[in-house]
Amino acid sequence: HHNRPRLISAEERSVCELFGHFGSLLLQQEQESQKQRKISRSRSTIRAISLYPAVTNAVEVLAQDLQQCVDADGLALVRLSANQPTSRENDDTATHRTPTSETGRASVDAYGDVPNHRLTIALCRQAASGIITNHCLAKSNASFSETELGKTAGAMVLPLDECTFLSFFRNAVLHQVRWAGSPEKEVTHGPNGPRLTPRASFQEYRESVSGESDRWESSDLTVGHEILRELWKLAQRGGAETGQNARELEKKTQFQDLLIAELNHRVRNTLALVKSIARQTQSPSLSLEQYVELLE
């Protein structure tokens, strides 16, 4: 609450920016570590997909393990018939596995807590162009009723091909959002205009949010891509190959991922070093030409 701007020197700004940069690197490193731990926990399940003769068999046997890979509460394998409208029949909600649709136009094999079949199929049609994630289905689409959703609040849909989809679902959880300041705090008017009381303006304010699931993190998407890739290879193979060829392909894929991760790490380190040198060279007494000459 100053009446005029407070200017900060170039040195102080450089220190703050450098501190923020290293803090960002540490946070990024921790996020990457969490992602790798999640992928490591899921690797045995993902590797086991190649041992089954068909996608349907793999999903049926590994349904619970696949849900645990992405912390989901439900799973559905949906097969649509091309160029035919979505059926509204057979709207049973699953507790473990629901029977497949009998219309011949779409089938849904569901495991765990899943929404109504019509809603599940509608989500798959939205994912025809790529993976979709949503943590608040009811709020993002008014046509999704609470009756159809049941316990479900969030979904991640993976398209295996234009007619086959693997959908993960998460149940609704009650979130506590903490804000730095209540939206209902009083504003007082004085000679300098409207003001907030400094101490009261940043008091903690808690808000309860319902109808949402836990958000889908980047690690969930990474694991989802791995699952999708293995299911796609299984579908292309048609169950003809198992064993040695699948293991060799998995080793090559892991080695390629390792090389990409190492390359990204080295590029980030180089950029951080260049930025640090540029900051250290900076001085308020130098002109732009002097700064460029000194930096070179």
Write up what this structure looks like.
The longest helix has 39 residues, at 10-48. The protein is flat. It is built from nine helices and nine strands. Strands 2-1-5-4-3 form a five-stranded antiparallel sheet, sandwiched between helices. The protein has a two-stranded antiparallel ribbon with strand order 6-9. Strands 7-8 form a two-stranded antiparallel sheet. It is of the alpha+beta class and 296 residues long. Strand 7 and strand 8 (193-196) form a beta hairpin. Helix 1 (10-48) packs parallel to helix 7 (218-237), helix 1 (10-48) runs antiparallel to helix 8 (244-281) and helix 2 runs antiparallel to helix 7 (218-237). Mean pLDDT is 78; it is low at 84-104 and 239-243. The protein is 48% helix and 20% strand.
Protein traits:
alpha+beta; 296 residues; 9 helices
Q: Which helices and strands, and how do they pair?
A:
Elements: H1 10-48, H2 55-69, E1 74-80, E2 106-112, H3 117-126, E3 132-134, H4 137-140, H5 146-149, E4 152-159, E5 164-171, E6 173-180, E7 187-190, E8 193-196, H6 198-201, E9 204-212, H7 218-237, H8 244-281, H9 288-295
Antiparallel strand pairs: 1-2, 1-5, 3-4, 4-5, 6-9, 7-8
What's the N-to-C terminus distance? Answer: 42 Å
- Beta fraction of the residues? 15-25%
Q: What is the overall pLDDT average?
A: 78
Q: Which structural class fits the helix and strand makeup?
A: alpha+beta
Count of beta strands: 9
Strand adjacency order, main sheet:
2-1-5-4-3
The dominant shape is flat
Pattern of helices and strands: HHEEHEHHEEEEEHEHHH
Mind summarizing the main beta sheet?
5 strands, antiparallel
**Helical content, roughly?**
40-55%
The radius of gyration is 26 Å
Q: Count the DSSP helices.
A: 9
Low-confidence stretches: 84-104, 239-243
